[in-house]
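Weekly structure sync, notes
Attendees: PL (lead), two postdocs, one rotation student
Agenda item 3: pending single-chain targets
PL asked that the sequence for the first pending target be pasted directly into the notes so everyone works from the same version. It is reproduced below exactly as submitted, 518 residues in total.
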Amino acid sequence: MQKYHILWADDEIDLLKPHIIFLNNKGYEVTTVTNGIDALELSNKTTFDIIFLDENMPGLSGLETLVKIKEVKPFVPVVMITKNEEEHIMEEAIGSKIADYLIKPINPNQILMSIKKLLQNKVLVNDKTTSSYRQQFAEISMTLSDKLDYKEWIDIYKKLVHWEIEIDAVGDGSLKEILLSQKSEGNQQFFKTVKTNYEKWINDSSEDKPVFSHTVFRKKIIPSIKQEKTFVLLIDNLRFDQWKVLQPLIAESYKTVSEELYYSILPTTTMYARNAFFAGMMPSEIEKKHPGFYNGDEEDLGKNNMEEELLRDQLKKNGLDIKFSYQKVTNLNQGKALCDGIKNILDNQLNVVVYNFVDMLSHARSDMEVLKELAPDESAYRSITASWFKHSPLQELIQLLSHKKIKLIITTDHGTIRVNKPHKIIGDKTTNSNMRYKVGKNLGFDASNYLMEIKKPESIFLPKTNISDAYVFAGDELFFVYPNNYQKFVQMFKDTFQHGGVSLEEVLIPYIVLEPNR
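Predicted structure, written out during the meeting:
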């Protein structure tokens, strides 16, 4: 065990000798002083791992000593020990960044627990996380070897994300590699499940099937609207793991009532999945109602310009003649304007905001070398998401809504996956540019266990421009690359985040119901 050095200041230190002997026997080195001035002088000269201060010392009080120590040694944990249980003393100590607060009389084990919590917390958490994951590793592996249904895949993915966040926190590289390998295996098995069942799920009239993009609004959101005013925040391209790092930040304003995952339709892109979300219809049904809707490439931003109209039609179709608003935020100024004008829409029964930051981040990652450096992997990607949120108008918006006691639903249209396995494909000039799925005529590609070809798009309610159009979706960590300038594009897009295909991260997406903290 590392040798820790403790400074203990108490004007009755002689009475605490049994405690000091106890700590010595546990391997801790303890230096004692009887007043705040000596404690301050010693702490400036010597490096201590933790400092214990009696609150009621003659001369310089414990609180005064604490403030002066923090000016010079802001990162050294200081524990206040006192007989005084007055609330204002506790509040003042907490406000002065006290690490712990113990009420006399204290026993040696209380002191030991405080030391372990403050100095050995990370080691103890690391050890526990490692042993717990190794235990669950075998359990998850056995589950992955079974034939899982759509509900079981949601449970497995939640477990994998839980361990991803936990292992991130402890920083164990070898454990992270094991988990990434297990998640990769999970994605391969999930792809097979979707490839086998997707057409059946989409065409099944029974209720025993996943909630999809085109049914989530009717099944989940409309019942909420009928009961109370509801604010829907759709953060484009938000993965479940990104939600998990935003959750503790949002918890300051809202508590999570339910945390579900639903299935994005294929392709897992904005022009298909998000339009289906707002229309309550599959893409070919939207195309039938709005001829030419899906002509051209998905990079045409106009493909999502009818969302408000699609939403209005869906509400009307479900018998809801209500006052609602729809807004889209694609930059900082629009986010600020939304916050400034929030009071103008709070009387609506339904408000919907599409927030595009995360989607822009994933696209920008392949365009900007500096962003590649900042987000080399999933861990960094999550970190950037959290950092952005802390300084964004979105956090302010959520705080404003919580003050008005508005029910909040946070969801998305699809996720994204980091790709690193290039797969050659041949298409003509009308073939789309997405790297996780292709649609076109006469597509040429080598067979793979992790490609899903749909020769009859109408079988899964997808539109086609030409009579011979087919779709092909990538699974695993594959991404499509044309033969021309092959190496250049492989180097450009390898280890970037892409969407449109079939993976746990792209398909299983968050649907979160929150209520304001009372």
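Discussion points:
- The mean pLDDT is 92.
- The first strand starts at residue 5 and ends at 9.
Action: rotation student to compare against the earlier draft before next sync.
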